[in-house]
Amino acid sequence: MCEYDTDVFENKTCISPDWESVEKNLKRDFSVFSFCRIEAKTSIEDWMLDDLEGLLQALGLPKTTKLKGRTGQDKIKNLFIKKGVVYDRYKGETNIRPVIDKLDIAKIREARKKELKEFEKLLGVIIK
Description:
By secondary structure, the protein is mainly alpha-helical. It is 46% helix and 6% strand.
């Protein structure tokens, strides 16, 4: 599986990889038998916002809490600030993991079916 953020390639100075070559080389050099690209057009924080109700509940914030920020990451950071917690996606085991554990992953998956389709197919996942 190859997951990457597509927004990094929106900047003209960053050249998008030749994914066919990447796949070919991985299969040849590392005996990879299956290759699946997952293009994340939004950040993980945007996915977390797909269960806003669960997120607010996990943070102990009222359902009427207004989101502030331009990006999903900005919005999540501001919610954590309201709770008095520092949000750092790279050092989040203590502050973020308990919140993520309370999110409704099925709800998020339903909202992100299109992005997960190829990955679920590769894994043989069938959700009715």
